[in-house]
Specification:
With about 900 residues, the protein is of the alpha+beta class. It contains 14 helices and 49 strands. It binds beta-D-glucopyranose (BGC). Beta-D-glucopyranose binds next to helix 3. This is alpha-L-rhamnosidase.
């Protein structure tokens, strides 16, 4: 099932109503790892000024209440389970009631289930192919088995099965499973769940997540079979640019761990775990690797191998047991990767006999489903994936570096066959199909889009198609790179969790999707990877590069938890991250007692991929040092750590002063005189007021000198539009947004981009393709302007002291080529919406504010006295508090509800 990743609307309701109930921020999760989970909900109401006066949560198990919060008069839309710690392996239902101002109550219910809490509850043992009795790598089956030199080193995936009898009917059956490697489960011949690339990527040295699936409907009394396919994945396959000899990052052999727990009507339980009772062998999958691709020989299919009654052929042997150490096994805490959308092919270009280039029309992360008709047994089809075409129409694969991104299928000779890889993912828009029998048509090819199933949270549209395309490309950049962890790119031999890319894009990502658990999960890997002296590696999960402690990269340690807290309001993320945050700032401080960050700068990439300028590295580093100290101080304040808050706050002020003393002259010129050099201190508030305006002038002068052209790289680009707009340079911000000359966002769009390119010169009219050593066409960092589309153009933001958007600031910015813009965003309280439109001398502004929150609305107008709401004067309206005119706007404070402002433009 695929969703297309669209925003679902809240329910239309007659009165205050809770919806979207979550447990541990997940919808009806099975197998949560916490005995005191957080329960949360959103609210909808058509009534102005509506708010939840009180709520009550009751948690029950088998109809027996285990906790009653009682009525609580709090505004919160989340609460931690406050009863006795929950029991493992148990289903719970929770009932929520909310009461509005008038005392009327409505309710909603949801379920969740706990997972395995105690290591002792794992009866299963890790199992693997018994390499003691077998050579580790299988020789090719015959000469047609296609392998590149690199894929030749990959071991064939294993097929595992266990037949067992259930003595009684099944009331409830759950399977808890994970792998060192990648796994897919079957039960009685049917696929279990729809998750892909499980167990996902975590720092396997410390933790590997188990997934929980309900298999009640797949099992029955009598003989049953559990089956699994096990591939290498991040565990022992290729990740990053390492050669195979350096690979096997976490281990050499894939392993499976699975435990089935079946409840019978009489209250008894049957537990079946992986152990030496399982059988295993190779099958049609000859190799499967995230970077190299997959090879499937349909002639070797095993029939109904995971069904009861299957007569075992030769080749099945006992699985080897590989220990029972489950100390690193933890419950999955974030949404899995799934097939999120199917894209039909838009064109097929015949390039030669049996050779075609197919265009999906969109650069994605995923794979192809191919229909094959009329092939003879042994016919071999090769699929090569590419983001771009050469000028002669052939696929451009040079930028993939050592990633083969090539799948193979060997036909069994059936009338019709379907091939879809299972354990790989490619970043591509085009696929070359070679060796296809007969005529390939668009109907034979489907693009299957894969990414983490983070719930969509936002939507933005405006009157300018170019800006909409930009937002679309940013969205696709997010989808292509949120694959279990936030990656830099999905295509070449990298796909790593580069920390700067993640922190720079997070504010944009959080407007588009609920990425709370996605990043909280990643932060756990960040904390464990910190060096003993506190440095944060450049890529998380930590792998490949020995570099750590890089300005703007390692600062993800403070920026990511703080941004999550600000967006979602769950203090737990700060509590968990606090030691890591302070250790990081202390690391930089210890190495740089003079407060200018020059020492221990790790890989120091500066303003990565800036154009034509070189922002001073000490300027960039020191600005980030101040920022990290500030966020650490802010975190200490939230956590009630007074002394630490004072100490880090004071440190931040001293760094800011040192920054000014060292880098800023009396005219407000920042050393290096580059756009990013100004943007950083302005965005981070490092300059005294008098120098601020001067710095803005220099920034504007630089832009004007360059005919309003940007020079920013990863670190500066997100700040351009917000800083310019924030300092009265809105039209300049819009000029950059609309620009389509090189370098600009519009340039790539004019040349057909469907995702954000890694570099401004990914492809240019003069040079063609940019430097092949590093030229991804799906890198989200330069797309971090997306945040401003939501917060600036559509105007959905929150007050500096607000968290979880409880104190909204609605400040849309009509301008540029736009006649209208609109956005919707799901805050933790509920949906906020804005829509503005300028036509015939009138500006209209529609605002929807979720229950229990307030909004400061800046109504744009040339004449504040002309502002009306729902055709009535604003003054005197009960839910509107007019704060007064300011700089082209009338500022009003409104309670929750829907408001329709109109004024003279
Ligand atoms: C990655 C970047 C990353 C950078 C560090 C590149 O290879 O793709 O996105 O942040 O290295 O300089």
């Amino acid at each position: 099932m695929t969703t297309g990743w669209v925003l679902t609307d809240p329910p239309t309701v007659p009165a205050l109503t809770p919806y979207d109930l979550r447990c541990e921020h997940l919808a009806e999760p099975l197998g949560i790892g916490s005995a005191r989970p957080r329960l949360s909900w959103r609210l909808a109401s058509p009534v102005r000024g509506d708010r939840q006066e009180a709520f009550r949560v009751r948690v029950e198990r088998d109809g027996v209440q285990v906790w009653d919060s009682g009525w609580r008069s709090e505004q919160a839309t989340s609460v931690d389970h406050g009863g006795a710690p929950l029991t493992s392996l148990t289903d719970y239902t929770w009932h929520l009631e909310v009461r509005d101002a008038a005392g009327a109550a409505t309710g909603a219910s949801a379920t969740f289930a706990t997972g395995i809490f105690h290591p002792g509850e794992w009866q299963a043992r890790w199992i693997e192919h018994d390499y003691e009795t077998e050579p580790p790598f299988e020789p090719p089956v015959d000469k047609v088995e296609p392998r590149s030199e690199r894929s030749a080193t990959l071991a064939a995936p294993r097929y595992l099965r266990r037949s067992f009898d259930l003595p009684a009917p099944v009331v409830r059956a759950r399977v808890y499973a994970t792998a060192h490697g990648l796994y897919q489960l079957n039960a009685n011949g049917r696929r279990v769940g729809a998750d892909e690339l499980t167990p996902g990527w975590t720092d396997y040295r410390y933790r590997v997540a188990y997934q929980t699936y309900d298999v009640t409907d797949l099992l029955h009394e009598g003989e049953n079979v559990l089956g699994a396919v096990l591939a290498e994945g991040w565990w022992s396959g290729y990740v990053g640019w390492d050669t195979r000899s350096q690979a096997h990052h976490y281990g050499k052999r894939p392993r499976l761990l699975a435990q089935l727990v079946v409840d019978h009507p009489d209250g008894t339980r049957t537990v079946i775990g992986t152990d030496a009772g399982w059988l295993e062998r190779t099958g049609p999958l000859r190799f499967a690797d995230l970077l190299m691709g997959e090879s499937y020989d349909a002639r070797l299919e095993l029939g109904d191998w995971s069904s009861p009654g299957h007569v075992l052929g030769q080749g099945w042997e006992r699985a080897g047991e590989a220990g029972a150490d489950v100390s690193t096994v933890v419950a999955a805490s974030t949404e899995p990767v799934r097939v999120m959308e199917d894209l039909p092919a838009v064109s097929v270009d015949r390039r030669g006999p049996g050779r075609y280039v197919v265009d999906l029309g969109q650069n994605v992360a995923g794979r192809i489903r191919l229909r094959i008709r009329g092939a003879a047994a042994g016919d071999r089809i090769r699929l090569r994936h590419a983001e771009m075409l050469e000028s002669d129409g052939e696929v451009y694969t040079a930028n993939l570096r050592t990633a083969d991104a090539t799948d193979y299928y060997v036909s069994a000779g059936a009338d019709e066959e379907t091939f879809e890889p299972a354990f790989t993912v490619h970043g591509f828009r085009y696929v070359e199909v070679d060796g296809y029998p007969g005529d390939l048509t668009t109907a034979d090819v489907t693009g299957r889009v894969l990414h983490s199933d983070t719930p969509v949270a936002g939507r933005f549209e405006c009157s300018d198609p170019g800006v909409n395309r930009l937002l679309g490309n940013i969205r696709w950049g997010q989808r292509g790179n949120f694959v279990s962890v936030p990656t830099d790119c999905p295509q070449r031999d990298e796909r790593l969790g580069w920390t700067a890319d993640a922190q720079i894009f997070l504010p944009t990502a959080a407007y588009q999707a609920d990425v709370q658990t996605f990043f909280a999960n990643w932060l756990e890997d960040l904390a464990v990877a910190q060096t003993p002296d506190g440095a944060v590696p450049d890529v998380i999960p930590h792998l490949i590069t020995g570099r750590h402690g890089t300005p703007a990269w390692s600062d993800a340690a403070t920026i990511v938890p703080w941004t999550l807290y600000r967006s979602y309001g769950d203090e737990r993320v700060l509590r968990q991250a606090w030691p890591s945050m302070r250790r990081w700032v202390d690391f930089v401080h210890t190495a740089n007692p003079g407060l200018i960050w020059r020492n221990r700068t790790g890989g120091h990439y500066g303003d990565w991929l800036q154009v034509g300028v070189c922002t001073d590295r000490d300027v960039l580093a020191t600005a980030y040092f101040a920022r990290s100290a500030e966020l650490t101080a802010a975190t200490a304040r939230v956590l009630g750590l007074r002394d630490e808050a004072a100490a880090y706050g004071e440190l931040r002020d001293r760094i800011a002063a040192a920054f000014v003393a060292e880098f800023v002259d009396a005219e407000g010129k920042v050393r290096g005189d580059t756009q990013t050099g100004y943007l950083l201190p302005l965005a981070f508030g490092l300059l005294p007021e008098d120098l601020e305006q001067e710095a803005v002038k220099h920034l504007v002068a630089d832009l004007e000198r360059r005919d309003r052209s940007l020079t920013t790289g990863f670190a500066g680009v997100a700040l351009l539009c917000p800083v310019l707009a924030g300092y009265g340079q809105l039209e300049l911000a819009y000029d950059l947004l609309h620009d389509d000359r090189y370098p600009s966002w519009g340039y790539s769009i004019r040349h057909g981009a469907t995702t954000i390119w890694e570099r401004w010169d990914g492809w240019t009219e003069e040079q063609g393709f940019g430097p092949v050593a590093m030229n991804s066409f799906n890198h989200y960092s330069l797309g971090s302007v997306g945040e401003w589309l939501y917060s600036g153009v559509a105007g959905i933001d929150q007050a500096p002291s607000s968290v979880a958007f409880r104190d909204l600031v609605i400040r849309p910015r009509p301008g540029g080529r736009l006649d209208w813009a609109q956005a919707a965003y799901d805050t933790p309280s509920g949906r906020v919406t804005t829509r503005w439109e300028v036509a015939d001398g009138t500006v209209k502004l529609d605002v929807g504010v979720p229950p229990g929150t307030t909004a400061t609305v800046h109504v744009p107008t040339a004449d504040p006295t002309s502002v009306r709401e729902s055709d009535r004067p604003v003054a005197g309206q009960e839910e509107i508090d007019v704060l007064g005119p300011a700089d082209g706007v009338l500022v009003c404070r409104v309670a929750s509800g829907r408001y329709r402002f109109a004024a003279d433009a």
